[in-house]
Write a structure and sequence with these properties.
By secondary structure, the chain is α+β, with helices and mostly antiparallel strands. It has helices spanning about 5, 15-20, 35-45, 90-95; strands at about 5-10, 25-30, 50-60, 60-65, 70, 75-80.
């Protein structure tokens, strides 16, 4: 797996935007990726230094629309904390 297969997309939410000031970013990642692979992928793509990575497996929610019912897709979420001396990720800076 290359770095772009591991990091799927950023998560832009109110809670996620609060962490940008502290250099903490949130991404949707591949389900089978572990913390060391996620760390290496973020460092390769954004050219930053990662201090730590926390991961969460998010289960799909039960949704209903009219007579149709089912579950949304489950995914894996990664919280990435950068080191204090690392530069910020420019993509997120434009959001804040």
């Amino acid at each position: 797996m290359n770095a772009y297969d591991i990091i799927r997309k950023p998560i832009i939410t109110e809670k996620g935007n609060e962490g940008i000031a502290n250099k903490k970013y949130t991404f949707v990642v591949a389900k089978d990726a572990n913390k060391t692979q996620i760390k290496a992928a973020v460092e390769e793509i954004f050219k930053v230094k990662v201090q730590k990575v926390n991961t969460v497996n998010v289960r799909g929610k039960y949704k209903r629309q009219g007579r149709t019912e089912g579950y949304t897709s489950s995914y894996k979420k990664a919280y990435v904390q950068l080191t204090a001396d690392s530069k910020a990720i420019e993509f997120f800076e434009s959001m804040a």
